[in-house]
Amino acid sequence: MRARCLLYDIPGYTPYWKALHWQRELFRLRTSGLPGEAHPNVVLALEHEPVFTLGRAASQRDLHFPGVTPNEDDDSPLPPTPFGFSAHRVERGGKVTYHGPGQLVVYPILDLRAFRADLHWYVESIEEVIIKSLKLGGGVSAFRVKGSPGVWTGVEGSGRERKIAAVGMNCSKWYTQHGFAINVNPNLSHFEYIVPCGVAERGRVTSLEQESGGMALGEFKAVALKCFEEVFECDLISAPLADLPVLPS
User: Which residue in the list 5, 171, 197, 227 is annotated as catalytic?
Assistant: First the structure.
């Protein structure tokens, strides 16, 4: 029997704090609900306003903000960001990344027991969604790189592979949070202000647009969500945005 997931396809550019609140509230409902209380699997698909996020393994030494010397105390307040972009410490795995317009961001809030209670399988499945999407949506051959998170393209094994998608998640009691981001046609210069996860040891960040001429993000999103259904053997059911958790006033 195929799993069902509510799909919230969010238009425009979403401030990161909004998506973080929705995720955390949905996650809280899943992990602290009463026995027998039903909460559906959910997938959020969106574009963010420009933001830098720091995961659990992040260090301020991965920040290259102009005119700022990062504090050695990684729990200290974050330094001022370029262009007044927002910045957040979050509970996902991984280090520092950038999100912004032109990047497809997908946050699955899933009960893995409805799929497969295996974190290794989950990460590989997310990567497979990305790899299939890039092939179908832009003819880009992408692959995993052992020891370097995310999905890459270029010459495999060269040490100069180009990172085209980021993966970072959190899981508690088999419930997932956070997810993945695929560079469709973002402003790649914004990545120069950080050391994105894995890039310090390898090549640079790239995009679907740079690799293949690209396509409209809306068209690519449809391809990626179809690939998600195929890989996870689930049905994405469009849900009204009014059903998302209420935002704090």
Answer: 197
According to CATH, the superfamily of the domain at 3-243 is Bira Bifunctional Protein; Domain 2 (3.30.930.10)
Domain assignments of the chain as residue spans, ordered by start: 3-243
**What confidence score (pLDDT) does residue 72 get?**
66
Q: Look at residue 35 in the predicted model and tell me its pLDDT.
A: 54
Residue 8 three-state SS = strand
Neighbour count for residue 82 (Cβ, 10 Å): 17
Lowest mean pLDDT among 79-83, 162-166, 175-179: 79-83
Please provide the DSSP assignment of 20-60 as one string. Answer: HHHHHHHHHHHHHPPTT----EEEEEEEEPSEEEE-TT--G
Q: Hey, what amino acid is at 66?
A: P
N-to-C CA span, the chain: 40
Active site residue 197: yes
Model pTM above 0.70: yes
Other beta carbons less than 10 A from residue 185's beta carbon: 19
